[in-house]
Amino acid sequence: ENPPALLRHLTLVGLMGVGKTTIGRRLARRLGAAFRDADEEVERAAGRTVSEIFADFGEPAFREGERKVIDRLLAQPDPLIIGLGGGAFIQDETRALVKDKAISIWLKADLDVLIERVGRKPGARPLLSQGDPAEIMARLERERAPLYAEADIVVDTSVGSHEQSADQVIDAL
Length: 173
Ligand code: S3P
Hints:
With 173 residues, the chain is α/β, with parallel strands linked by helices. The protein is built from eight helices and five strands.
């Protein structure tokens, strides 16, 4: 059976390592839409990696660039699948923009699954270089879950493949 036509942008929110980019690419293929990764767009605009932006300019500057990039993506006329960086939906202004212009999907997973996944790419995530990654992830989950919960759709990615998570998103649309 055919997937539903996409009438609005879809944004994927959730903690680092949950699969926003991988599941987003699969969703884009299935729904016939383009995929954009907000972190990648920020990196392209800045000509630096996310880690370099944090180190050279600090997190507030990153958040400002991130908001601008997301604002620009949301202004595109054709519906996009957008993978947001894990902290984007936590910023009040960015979250308001996203809730206004897109369907938001919170991808959840058990903390131990996330910790294992982010451990595969050490150094890629500046927030996790500030201490013990497992402790930081646990704190971020505690702080952020109430805001991620404002998303329109919630999908648990702990069980099943990324393809099955994409199925669940499509079923929920
Ligand atoms: C961040 C998540 C990262 C990236 C930056 C900050 C966060 O994106 O935007 O390192 O605050 O959770 P991913 O969730 O794609 O790793």
